[in-house]
Write a structure and sequence with these properties.
single chain, mainly alpha, Tetracycline Repressor, domain 2
Length: 240
């Protein structure tokens, strides 16, 4: 006689249907793991579907193409960066302490997501078209948020309003410098979040501190004057 295991019922309980937002989060989570470890060119929609245990058709219900899915992964990744950096920057302290906490938080994030950062960042630089444009837009959004923080610090310090326009440009420079250092880190693993954050602070804070104090570097009159064009030499004698 064959014994049959008896459970709560002869059939498995029906699986709960996930809401649209839950399905999208599931797709993004698995796509992040795939793109973050293998890169854009080495991952297909079929790969993501198989990794997530869902059908490819379900992915296309949420994302029209692999480009759109990759952009969504990048946006989620950069949003995580932005939340961590701005949260750290928003803690109590002097402007110098806040910038240090924000910069250090960025490099700690990269340390904990080193492989994904390397693949996603370098792939996005190499890819042209809509993904490249999307990266530029997202990087600009982060810089603008950082710029608002810088502007608030400058206003609190009573900086000349005419200088406030430098906040946005300074933020773009800071974001670009940190990303470049993170890229440098991929080829120099001996560095640490502490060492790279210190380098970034030496490049950025020393200048920004002067701006808060109302000090600006300006080119001298001689430096602003275009170089005098050299008079052309006399034509060499013709060779007969």
């Amino acid at each position: 006689m064959t014994l049959r295991a008896v459970g709560n019922g002869d059939s498995a309980a029906p699986r709960r249907r996930m809401a649209r937002g839950e399905r999208q989060s599931l797709i993004l989570r698995h796509a992040s793991e795939m793109f973050g470890s293998r890169g854009y060119h080495n991952v297909s929609m079929e790969d993501v579907a198989e990794h997530a245990g869902i059908s490819k058709a379900l992915i296309y219900q949420h994302f029209e193409s692999k480009d759109q899915l990759y952009l969504a992964v990048l946006r989620r990744f950069q949003n995580d960066v932005r939340v961590m950096v701005l949260h750290s920057w928003g803690t109590a302290g002097t402007p110098e302490e806040k910038m240090w906490k924000g910069v250090l938080a960025f490099f700690k994030f990269v340390e904990h997501n080193r492989t994904a950062w390397g693949v996603l960042y370098r792939d996005s630089v190499a890819i042209e078209g809509v993904i490249h444009r999307g990266m530029v837009v997202m990087r600009g959004e982060i810089a603008e948020r950082v710029g608002l923080v810088l502007e608030q610090e400058m206003i609190a310090a009573g900086v000349n309003p005419a200088i406030l326009r430098n906040a946005s440009a300074s933020a773009h420079a800071l974001v670009g410098a940190c990303e470049a250092l993170a890229d440098y880190w991929l080829d120099h693993p001996e560095e640490s979040p502490l060492s790279l954050a210190t380098i970034a602070m030496n490049m950025s804070w020393l200048g920004f501190a002067g701006v808060i104090d109302g000090k600006l570097w300006q080119p001298s009159l001689e430096q602003m004057t275009p170089e005098t064009e050299l008079e052309p030499e006399e034509d060499p004698p013709a060779v007969l």
